[in-house]
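Quarterly update from the structural biology core.
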Amino acid sequence: MAESGKRAGSASAGIVVFRRNPDRGTGPGGVEILLVHPGGPFWANKDIHGWSIPKGEFDPDTESGEAAAVREFGEEIGRPPPEGPLRPLEPFRAGRKTISAWLVEGDLDADAIESNSFEMEWPPQSGRTQSFPEVDRAGWFGLADAETKLHKGQLPLCRLIVVALTEDSAENNAKNNAYNNAENNAKNQ
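Predicted structure, tokenized:
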């Protein structure tokens, strides 16, 4: 908490689902990432820099970032994240908000999402309350396209994904080289 009693900034957590699609994806191994478009009237006509990863705010004093990311994914997509290890990416700041994200490889039908909804007065000052989906659509985007779709504050995700997948690739290459060297040594003995 800040000295004034207000939180200095908020915390947000989300999951980046990626899949390898060499025909459409970009980056290491032809990567595509799953992005969601916020529902509601404010975002209805915003496409460029209007998308996000499935994520939401949480209180780090009462919930872990990873648990919040899994919860938010379920709320926005309508199902749990794909099975597999959740790899933490380096947290980053977007304005006053700290975003923590976890990377997982998987695939799902972006057209089959079932988002939670929220209510708000709409139109403003009308006294009428309407219900809107938290997420009105989802889609798979190569990293180059994701840079034009993601909210500007989330653009560091693209670099963090490339770094994480490049590290994975380098680690796998080192393991393969060690295996091949051991196999060759065994053949030569």
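The beta strands are 11-20, 31-38, 55-58, 87-88, 92-94, 97-105, 117-121, 129-133, 135-142.
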